[in-house]
Fold these 4 entries.
Entry 1:
Amino acid sequence: MTLSIRRATLADEAALSHICLVTADAGKSAEALHDHKELPGLVWSVPYLHLPTTWAYVLVDESDAPVGYIVGSTDTRRYEQSAAADWWPIHAAKYPPEEMVKEGDKRVAGLLRNMYTAEEPSVVFSPAHIHINILEEHQRKGWGRKLITTAANHVKGEGLDGMWLGLDMRNTEARKFYERVGFSSFEGAAPHVLGMKFN
């Protein structure tokens, strides 16, 4: 199968949401954890198609269907402010945690009401952050590295010298991948945060 990378569009929203869901449990599917299967995407992928300072690329198959993505913001603090004003409240109103049964839904719905913000050392390292996910059947084939390179080129094109990401500490394979492609811990970074400076 021949894959390729292109800029994401609003038409890719459902695909980004699905990919996020099936990788949201430390790289494995979180489908069983959610009755509201769109919730993970509303936090970790879909906002990057809608808010200021964001960008997104998708890995697509021969039919142009997304099988992976890399999304990010070139200004994390402005992203957080925009989401706090124009994204989290709108979606929080639709998903009251007290009406939910599954703990996964309650947890993500709770984030819509009280979203964490980046720690200052991360923003000092770089204002740019990213999220990346690829469907399991397309992992370990070099596409993750290509998506990271695509993101790095985009961020460099915006005049920045680095980017960072947060990861689930349970996902040890993901950490090994990030370290192989050039991410590492940095001064003041939380244990779950890794950064990359561009050469």
Entry 2:
Amino acid sequence: MIVRWMAVGFVIWIAIAVAFRFVGELGFQAGPGGVSWLFMTLPIGLLILTYLVLKLMKVAPTDRAEAASIMAVPGLLVGIYEINSFHIVFPNLDASLQPEFSALMFASYAAVIIAGIVSSRLEGNV
């Protein structure tokens, strides 16, 4: 189970990194509009995506929190590289956005973990 969820996590977090690399400048811009909208939408989107993945793969409610936590681990590993090499990985983004990007990624990791915990608690009590 661990290997499967690590693989799912790597696919999700690499897809997010690729999206930021190639089209990140469209929505992640310095100023009042870009960063705040992503802080409101990306974690919620990942919460919903995590819940759907757990449901579609028919994970037992008792295992969902563990599966979601394991899905977040590859993001932490990918995120370390992205944050340390921000200007190399994301030449299309303003270098001053590095702190906001870091905070956004950690909010997204938390959303994935919370999705697993909430979904296991909601359906575990039914």
Entry 3:
Amino acid sequence: MDNNHTQNFDHLEYTVIRSNRKSICIEISPDLQIKVRAPQKMLDSQIRAFVASKDKWITDHLAIMQERLGSQAADTSRKPLSGSELAALAQKASIVIPERVKHFAPIIGVTYGRITIRHQKTRWRSCSSSGNLNFNCMLMTTTPELIDYVVVHELCHRKQMNHSPLFWAEVERALPNYKELRKELRQYSC
């Protein structure tokens, strides 16, 4: 059986890539191709339902990427985001990220202080000793699963302000597939 095949959902065409992974994720390549990476045994109906649930995220990110490409489609160098694009990402992040923090904090068993959204050039996030959380608005250019990973990572620092085995055990308790997500996050740049 071919592990890769193209499907359509409503107005979206996407390629399904099956592998020995544990979770499903969506990627949009620089040439605006939508790829859904899924576990080998996941049913097509489950994949379609997942894509349907991420329709708005996909549409928003396609629009952002199309705007970035603009008339410079032939230019292969990475173009910095405009001020309006960064503002749109920050606005979206200020809605999405606090929702995910609120979702995961009780699961991890921690409290938190202020949540700040910034455009940082080298960091996805940070956590202060007083419990304030800072997130990079560029997280909105990744996947929902990676946003959850970054949120969980920072919330676990509320228990362990280090990257010790105890810290990673906390992360794994909330996200058993964190190693896979951590690896995927490296494919993105701030």
Entry 4:
Amino acid sequence: MAKNETTAAFRLIQTWVLPPSATLGSSVRAKGILLELRARLPFASRKSIDITGKDLTLSMPEGSEDEFCAARTIILNSLQNIDSLPVIPREIEDILTISTAERRRWLEDGRLPSAGTRTVRLRGRARQITFHVFEPRVVEDLLNQSIVDEWREEDAAAKFENRRRAAYQAKLMRTLKKAGKSTVKSSPKPDDASPNLAGWDEFKRDGLLR
């Protein structure tokens, strides 16, 4: 179908621009907001909304006025508090430019505070997964303060210190092991294996061992 025919087919169109406080500068976050809005719409209307950059667009063909109005109302209500939508793992990784390993490590040691957990069912599967979510304003503060660089420096220093301690412990164990071997080699022979002890001949002559 030609482009002008596609445009003509959708007479009912409305567009919203997502604010920076909602996307936090992340295209992954913007896509997550789109998926959240689609999940709130009736199943038949979910594909009617899409996103390009920060622009959300709801479009339906002429004759779908009732469905369009219902979907638009849901979207308008959802967008009122969209900047408070919890940040999910893949979004915070993109926003802060961090790896999955860093997110898990900082979450475990408390530097990255959790806002709770969320459980979802994987598409087409019976299995559910549970993951931590994060408060958008906390994530925004971390982004503005560039705190991630400080955490990486702390991790590098801790890693160096752990390696230094491990090397010291390994050296200490080798030293103790060598000292133990030297002690065994320098130990004197038992008395009954030393025939040259003073008074040994008289002791044998008197027959005290018989």
